[in-house]
Design brief:
Blueprint lengths: L17 E7 L2 E7 L1 H6 L11 H13 L16 H7 L6 H5 L1 H11 L16 H21 L3 H18 L1
Antiparallel strand pairs: 1-2
């Protein structure tokens, strides 16, 4: 049966909050320290607030042999991409450029492939103008798909443009 843990600090009479047992070359050494003395002897690591998803992803990468990468950080305001994900708020206008690589795929998912605002047609405008604007939007998406060499999407968009043109004539 193990000996009970000592309640008092080895250096003072305060309650011990740090308990350590070390065995070196067969010699057992017990250390019981209060928070103050544990901090003085660097026995307790300072608490660092790291989101659990970052800890888990770093752990998985370390176990899989992948290098742990530094998190994206805005050079102007110091906001991290994780902070943006938590709050959904950018710290400053420079964050958009700093996080562009990670934001672009998110925007494409949200906007079904589009990353640029194409504008809107007022409802009070005529039907012909709305159809013309829709056709222009479709052709622009087609051109972007071809430029990005996404030929499957380009073929699908080409077929949609053809159907749309046949319906409007």
């Amino acid at each position: 049966m193990d000996a009970p843990v000592k309640d008092k600090c080895d250096k003072c009479d305060k309650k011990a909050s740090f308990h350590s047992v070390e065995i070196v070359k067969g010699q057992k050494t017990e250390i019981n320290l209060c928070e103050v003395h544990a901090a003085q002897e660097s026995k307790v690591a300072k608490a660092v607030h790291t989101p659990i998803n970052e800890l888990l992803s770093s752990f998985v990468k370390a176990q899989s042999g992948q290098p742990v990468t530094e998190e994206a950080l805005c050079g102007e305001c110091g906001q991290t991409f994780s902070q943006f994900r938590e709050t959904s708020l950018m710290g400053c206008p420079s964050c958009y450029a700093a996080f562009e690589e990670k934001l672009t795929p998110m925007l494409e998912r949200i906007h079904e492939g589009g990353t640029h605002h194409l504008g809107k047609i007022p409802k009070r405008s005529g039907v012909a103008e709305q159809k013309q604007a829709a056709l222009l939007r479709m052709r622009k998406q087609l051109a972007e798909a071809v430029a990005a060499e996404n030929f499957e999407l380009a073929a699908r968009l080409r077929d949609e443009v053809r159907r749309f043109e046949e319906q409007t004539t």
